[in-house]
Amino acid sequence: MSKSILLIPAAGVGERMKIGYPKQYFPLLDSTSMLEVTVNRLQDMYLFDQIAVVVSRNDSYIKQCHFHGDVCIFPCGGETRAESVLNGLVALNPDDNDWVFVHDAARPCLDRDSVERLKEAIESEAIDGAILAMPVTDTIKWVSSSGLIEKTIDRSHCYRAQTPQVFRAAALRAALSQAKGTVTDEASAMETQNAKIRIVEGSAFNIKVTYPDDIEIVRNYLLNSVQRKDY
Ligand code: CTP
Ligand code: MG
Questions:
Q1: Closest-lying ligand to the alpha carbon of 16?
Q2: pTM score, two decimals?
Q3: What are phi and psi for residue 124, nearest 5 degrees?
Q4: Which residues of 25-34 are buried (b: 16+ CB within 10 A; e: fewer)?
Q5: Domains in the chain: how many in total?
Q6: pLDDT tens digits along 88-135
Q7: What is the CATH number of the domain that holds 224?
Q8: Distance, CA 148 to ligand 2 centroid (Å)?
Q9: 15 alpha carbon, closest ligand
Q10: How remote is the CA of residue 212 from the centroid of ligand 1, in Å?
Q11: Residues lining ligand 1, judged by CB closer than 6 Å?
């Protein structure tokens, strides 16, 4: 039986957040950090056999984190997100056929239904993997480097990729090794291997905290979510 493993890259510096320390340690709910919220929500779902977090080699914050259960911490972050995930996979050393769900530490609002839809996709169809994504609702312009519109893209084919993104351990490891850190998500690495990847509906609230303004949206959602008990 292949296991479901959750791998959370949390080794970024959070440059765009501009708070002077990595955004995953921002106190999101009282003193509970973004990383603790992300991990604990997922731990409370009991949908994974193992949870692992990749932090940077010189991380001095992780030891102050309190998680609801067992979490493997790997201080092997790389220069890029793809390198962090690859290093985490090597450290984790899962069985080749285990399913690895990669989820950004910076997405603390993931809901149970989305994870269950992902699991159902990989269990019900012969595919190499699946990712959460949302259809694009704005009109999409292809713009030249001088800022002039060149054309409009048919948005019916456009989706915004979220996480988790789930693939078999061995295939993901091979694809990331070849991609050499240049890709911004796991699916991009797997696409170069012609993998069959299913798009699964995510949630509008599963945003990646990137800029300071994102904090308020995420906080409001999480405070309401505790009342709704939807995790
Ligand atoms: N990440 C990582 N290792 C890196 C870069 C990013 O593990 N070298 C992680 C981040 O910690 C985050 C996720 O990948 O959980 C998504 O990355 P992003 O939102 O871009 O975070 P940062 O790279 O930290 O932010 P920025 O790009 O603004 O510096
Ligand atoms: Mg980044």
A1: 1
A2: 0.97
A3: -100, -5
A4: bbebeeeebb
A5: 1
A6: 999 999 999 999 999 999 999 999 999 999 999 999 999 999 999 999
A7: 3.90.550.10
A8: 27
A9: 1
A10: 15
A11: 9-16, 24, 54, 77-81, 84, 104-106, 208, 210
